[in-house]
Request: fold
Amino acid sequence: MKISYNWLQQFLQVDWEPVKTGELLTDLGLEVEGIETKESIKGSLKGVVVGKVLTCKQHPNADRLKVTSVDLGDEKPVQIVCGAPNVASGQKVPVATIGTTLYDEKGDGFKIKKGKIRGEESFGMICAEDELGLGISHDGIMVLDKKLKVGTPAAEVFNIEVDYVFEIGLTPNRSDAMSHFGVARDLRAGLIQQDEKLELISPSVSDFHVDERRLRFDVEVEDKDLVPRYCGITITDVEVKESPQWIQNRLKSIGLAPKNNIVDITNYVLHELGQPLHAFDAQKIKGNKILVKTLEEGTKFITLDEVERELSSEDIMICDADSNPLCIGGVFGGLKSGVTENTTSIFLESAYFNPVSIRKTAKRHALNTDASFRFERGIDINLTEYALKRAALLIEEYAGGKLASDISDFYPEKIEDFQVFLSYENAYRIIGQEIPKETIKNILASLEIKINSETEGGLGLTIPSYRTDVQREADIIEEILRVYGYNNIEFSHKLNTSISFDSNKETKIENIVANQLSALGFNETMANSLTKPEYSSLSENINEEANVEMLNPLSNDLKVMRQSLLFSGLESVGYNINRKNNALQFYEFGKTYHKYNEKYEENKHLTLFVTGNRTKETWNIDNKISDFFYLKGIITSLLERLGIDKSKSSSSKLDVFTEGISLGLGKIKLVEFGVVKRSILKEFGIKQEVLFADFNWDAILKLVGNKKIKVSDLPKFPAVKRDLALLLDGKTEFKEVYNLAFQSERKLLKEVDLFDVYQGDKLPEGKKSYAISFLLQDESKTLEDKQIDKIMQKLQQSFEKNLNAVLR
Reply:
C-alpha cells in the first residue's frame, strides 16, 4: 500500500524527516518496506529560471530562428537562439540554463548544453510548456506574468511538489490503516509517545446541505446480512472534466492515473478515508430506484474492463428498478452505467458490504480492486455517511454539482462499539514488564479507545468501530505494546532452555526411511494438500463425491483436498522436466483426505517418483534408464530395512498403472507401485516414463517394531558359483524357481539370481529360457567338487520334476 507523506501532512502537520517517520511507522506495526521520492514534474524543473527577453533579432543565417539576449538575474545577459514564433522582447519566459536536464513524456532526459545554431552561440533554451512537462502545447514558448522577478526558480512559480511515498506492507488485520487518515491517526499515537502532541485534522463536512430536492432514488436492500449499510445521494448539473491539479498530484503520487473529476474524487476519498465509493450516471438508472440484490446463476454482465462475466447467485449486485445489473457491489463497476464526459447527473454510492461475500466474489471473478481490497478486510461502517458527504462536497466544488436529494441511508441494525475489560495484571504478565498505569491510559486515549470505568485491577474499555481487529483483552495489550514500543521493553541477557528428546516412534521410522532414500539419491518434496477437483476424473479409483471441498477456496486450482499424492507429485515432476531436469527421484510423506457419509478421514502415505537416468551423464558411465525393477529393488530394500521381509506380491488394481504390483501381508496392502499411464502423464505435459510407488504408511507404522541388528563374522571359506540354463514353460515365474531352489537345498545355498531371460523363435512355442546363478557356501569348511556336483544335480532334478524344466 502506498502512502504519500505530503498527503499525510494534510491531517497531521508533522515536520519529521521522511526516513525518521518511516522508522516510527514500522515500530507501530505499519512496516515501511521502502521510501520513494516523487516529483509532480520529473526533475522538479531544477535549473529552470524566470528570464526577461531584452532584445530579439532575426537570425542572420535562418529565417525561422531569432537571436535573443535574456536577463537571468546575473551580471550579464546571455545569448539564446530561439525558434518559437511568439518570442519577443520584454517578455518574461522560462529558461533552461546550461547543465539543466529536461524530460520528455517517456521520462527520457536530455541535458542543455552550450552550442552553436547556424553559426550563432546559444547559452540555454527558452521553453514551451510541453518541454517543461507542464502541458502538451508546443505552439510557442511560455509567456509568464510580467510581475515575476527575474532569476526566480521555475519550481516556485509553478508550485512543483516533491513528495515522499511510503510503501507499507500492510498486514490483513490492520484494516484501520487502509487510508491516509488511518495511517495519520496511528502516527499521531506514536508521536505522542515521542512527546510530539499534534492535532489530528479531519476533513470538515459542516457545509453539507441539499440545494434542491429534485432527483431522488429510492434504495431497497434485499439481504441486510450481505449489505448491513447502504447510503446514496444524487448530484445534478455536474460537468465532467479534468480534476484540479492538487487532486491529480495526490493520485499520481500513489500510482493512480487521473481520469476525470468525478472518478478522481471517488478515488481520492477512498485513499483519504478508506471508504470505497461508486458514481453511477443517473440517467442510465431506470425507474429512479436502486435495488441491492443477488441475481440468477449464470446471468451475463459486462464490467468496466469490457469483459462479459457470468454472475454467481451469491454476488451482490447493484441494479435498477427493472433488476438490470449496474455494478458488482464492492468489486467492479458496469460498462453501461459508468460516468462519461456526457454525464450531467450522478447517483453516488457509499456502502458497507459483507467482507466474506466480497472476498468470494473478487476471487471468483479474478478481480482485485482497491475497493474489494478494503471491503474484504472490513471497513468502518460508521464512516459510510461521512465519506459520502466528503465526496459530495468535493464534487460540488470541483464539478459544479448541486446536491439534489437527501442521503438515503439503509442501516436497519446499528453496530455497537465493542466492550473489553483490561486487567493490569494480565497486561504486565504478557508484556513482561510493568508499564505505569498513566502511560497505559494515555496510550489508549491516543488510540481513541474510551475508558468507561476504572478499578484497582483494570479498565473497562469501548473499542471504536474502525478497529475491527481489536476484540479481546490480548488485542488491547498488543495495541499498548506496539505504541509503547517493543524496543522499550527490557529483556534478560540470560537465556534458559532445555534439550528436548523426541521419543516419537513415527518420527524415528520416517527418519530411517528418509535417510535411506536420501542416500540413494532421492530428494524430498512437500506438495500442497489443496489441489484441482478435475484430477478426480483421471482415475476411477478416486470417488469425486469423497472430495473434501474448501468453503472459501483461494482459487479453482486449490478447491479440494487431495485424495491421492500422485497428481501433486506429477506437477513437481512436470515442472522439473520442463526446466531440463529430466533425471528425477522424489519422495514425499503426506496425507490424503476423504469424506465418507459426512465423516472425514485422513490417511498417511509415503510416495516415490522415479523417472529418467539412474545417474548423471558422465563420460565413463553408460546411461541406464530407471525401470520397473529398479523401483522394485528400492521398495524391497526399504521394507527389509523396516523388518518387513515376508511380503507377498499380487497384481495392482489401481487404474493409474499400465503395469503394477501390490505388496502386502495377508489382507494388509503395504505398497502399490508401477508405471504411470501415458494418458495421465499427458495431462501434466510429461512425455517420458514415470514410475510411482504409494506406501500405506499407516499400515507400515503398525507393523514396524524395534528391529534388532544382528552382527556376525565374515565367512572364512570361499563361496562357489554355478549356473544353469533352464528351458521352462512360458507361464513359469522366477519366484517359483527361487522358492523351489531353497526348498531343495536349505543349508549351503545362499543366493539365487536370474541374470538372463530369452524368448524367441529359436525356442519351442510357449517356452522361455532362464539363465540362473546359484551361490553355495559352507561357513565351516571349503566345499569339494563332489559335494557341489551333488547339490547341483539335486537342484536340476527338482526343477525337472516340479517345473518340467529341461537343461539347455
User: Anything to note?
Assistant: The first strand starts at residue 2 and ends at 4.
